[in-house]
Amino acid sequence: MSILYFLIGCSVLLALIFLGAFFWAQHDGQHDDMYTPSVRILLDDKPIENTEK
Amino acid sequence: MSVITLDTTTCYHCGNDCVDEHFAIDDKDFCCHGCKEVYSILSKSGLNNYYCYNDHPGANRTKTDSKLDYLLVPSIVKELVEYTDDDVTIVTFYIPHIHCSSCIWLLEQMNRLNPAIYYSRVDFLRKQVNIRFNNKEINLKGVVELLDLIGYEPLISLQDIVKNQVFSKKDDLVRKIAVAGFCFGNVMLLSFPEYLGFSAHDASFKYFFGWLNLLFTIPVTFYSGWGYMRSAYTNLRNKVLNIDFPLALGIAVLFIRSWIEIITNTGAGFVDTLCGLIFFLLIGKFVQRKTYYHLSFERDYRSFFPVAVQVLDEDGEKHVPLADLQVGRRIRVRHQEIIPADAILLKGDARVDFSFVTGESVPVNKTLGEVIYAGGRQMGGAIELEVVKPVSQSYLTRLWNNEAFSRNQDDRIETFNQKVSKYFTVVLLVVAIGSFLYWMPSDMHRAIASLTAVLIIACPCALALSTPFTMSAALGIFDRNFFYLKNAAVVEQIAAIDTIVFDKTGTISIAGGSNVELVGELTAEEKDAVSAVCANSSHPLSQLVCQYLGAAHEDTYVDAYNEVTGNGITAQVNGKSIKLGSGKFVLDARDVMAGNNGSLVHILIDGRYRGYFTITHQYRQGVYDMRKLKSDYELYLLSGDHNHERTNLASVFGDEGAMHFEKSPQDKLDFISNLQKQGGKVMMLGDGLNDAGALKQSDAGIAVTDNVNNFSPGSDAILDGRSLAKLPAFLKFSKDALHVIYASFIISLLYNLIGLSFAVTGKLSPVIAAILMPLSTVTIISFTSLATHLAAKKRKLL
């Protein structure tokens, strides 16, 4: 059962990494604009053909 | 009125009808040169995709007369940019036209129009674009010109909206929730074995889990929950008992008792309860905070005023920041620009639209030498003025020096929560000390146990959550009905009011929406004559008639002119004698046809009655339903306008005493504060800058606007004009929301009573605490959101 000590250590460490990742995302401003990316991903880029027309 | 025919073409760029002339290239039609220009720039750069995502995404380009030279003045540039070094500058602009996916796409392709722009990123909801550019190859003015060229003119005003937002965003509630959630999850995991019981040979784990749990209490208490401690401390120092005090007490007791129990190995502690408590409390704080990115509630005159003015001196023109504008300077104001300070008209043809200041929507002609008050918008050619008062001391802006603007807005009404928590705290302390004293003589250990247990179990978590969750549900419902509240406390402010004051123009009537109709026949010559007479009068009805008839023919001369204030005009035009005005004045008799739906202007030419004009103001839908409010509220009308609509509105507002006309912005503010002195709780509905003072002074100031993205003055709430008819329902619903809070308060008290019956005996097991706390929280959250939705259904708001 001593393996539990190790596993719990791992799980807490993992959770800490996720928390750190969240902090980083927050600091980086990834949650500032929650709407525009949802539109942006739908915009296709195919401008070159249009220029020729 | 334009007649729509089948061969009407719409502009490929902006979607307007191509009325008089149209421009065409590549088989596409454009309504004006400006639109065509934008199209050709975009197609040259291969950005035609702009037109693929949406039909007619562009802004109409007929009016392009902006002078951007002020963007070369270093002191102004410094104010606007966020960051600059030797070669890179970063700036964020607010662009009102951003409205569709094409806008996002095009603005993010700016690099292809000019490679000196490295990067541009749109924030759609805030209508902002963040631009990073090489300042050696293009300057700020160049960037704005480029934006302007493609139809996205940024709005640059004195009170920089962009920076304000960045500034107010600084708070780390989300991070605190993340930490609390992280600890709560881990602690629940580690506490679970405790609930099931450890077998004898797992006892070492019990120690290990306990100590790990204790580690988690440190960030939860000292980072996430620290705000409650600090708030309780400052409130105590100010001799105020609010809900934070029992919360902080509960947190402290949970923390200390857990540490003692685990260190001395006498129990499992209440770490799970502690983490859960703080986590749920912070969630409550979070939902209460609603942000409308597209709205701003804090605007004052500075958001309406330009950044710089054109000053004329011996060396020619130069741009001066508004703050540096001095008395005695000569300034030039162009078409559509706002006059920034009280000034004397020196040169030019001034037609000034004072709708910001007075609510009167018809532009006023000014003669040379006259003083023009700040806040008016010049319509027509450029004019030159001499400044007579500094910007901050002008007629309009002086309003902001009133104490109403420096007052702290948050504590105008004592919320239910604040009232109750005082008593709650006192009762809680009495019960805690009582149970301590009861057990003390027989069992000191049990006495301490019961004291701490009472403080833990009675910790008003559910109580603290009932207000935020109800309010956030209510805000959501208002939001769906286009009624945007600044924050949750406004719901209670609205529920508490007993007096409602309406502004007229723009609030209950649609600004500029007047209908003129001629009943009777006039020859073209007579129309010219009437128009020429009306052009001489500054009375709004005359102005409307004049607009309706069009400008008079050049050889129409007004020989004699006499205006009787409040009655009408007599004049001689080209030998004809003309009499215009009210029935009493024109017909020398009683008002035969009293206008029940607007104002009448009768016409008498050469002694013969020729008919009349009917002028109806367009009121917003539901204005006449406001009379239903009269049974519960006192209604007043407060208008900067003249009183032609008095009879028409009497059916809503009743007797004469309730309607007040020709009020200046300061009068409006004073009127509100007088009502308040008489004990009224006043709600003000207004629209323009002229109402800004009254909105601020009132207990609940509501700005009514046709387009929520347009500027509206600082207020507690913004109401879309379409929803004005729902005002009675909103008022009722705000009261319902309060009732939901009362009910959820009773529910949370019941939970507290159950918990207390365990606690006073001193035998509170951690499991019971750990079950009761989340259970009560979940009950409150589901009850409040369900009850609020039911109430909204009842009021037909959903």
Textual characterization of the structure:
The complex is a heterodimer of chains A (53) and B (798). Chain A is an all-alpha fold and 53 residues long. Chain A has helices at residues 3-27, 36-40, 47-52. By secondary structure, chain B is α+β, with helices and mostly antiparallel strands. Helices cover 42% and strands 18% of the residues of chain B. In chain B, helix 8 runs antiparallel to helix 12 and helix 24 (727-759) packs antiparallel against helix 25 (766-794). Chain B starts with 22 loop residues before the first strand and ends with a helix. Mean pLDDT of chain B is 81; it is low at 1-6. The A-B interface holds A 1, 4-5, 8, 11-12, 15-16, 18-19, 22-23, 26, 31-33, 35-36, 39-40, 42-48, 50-51, 53 and B 43, 46-49, 53, 101, 104-105, 108, 122-126, 169, 174-175, 178-179, 182, 185-186, 189-190, 202, 205, 208, 212.
- CATH architectural label of the largest domain in chain B: 3-Layer(aba) Sandwich
Strand content of chain A: under 5%
CATH superfamily of the largest domain in chain B: HAD superfamily/HAD-like
The CATH topology of the largest domain in chain B corresponds to Rossmann fold
Return the CATH class of the largest domain in chain B. Answer: Alpha Beta
- The helix/strand order of chain A is HHH
Q: What structural category arises from helix and sheet content of chain B?
A: alpha+beta
Name the average pLDDT of chain A.
82
Give the termini separation of chain A: 73 Å
| Proportion of residues in β-strands of chain B | 15-25%
Write down the oligomeric state: heterodimer
Estimated helix fraction of chain B? 40-55%
Q: How many structural domains can be distinguished in the coordinates of chain A?
A: 1
Q: pLDDT average of chain B, as an integer?
A: 81
Percent range for helical residues of chain A? Answer: 55-70%
Assign an overall shape of chain B.
Answer: globular
| pLDDT < 50 runs, ≥5 residues of chain A | 49-53
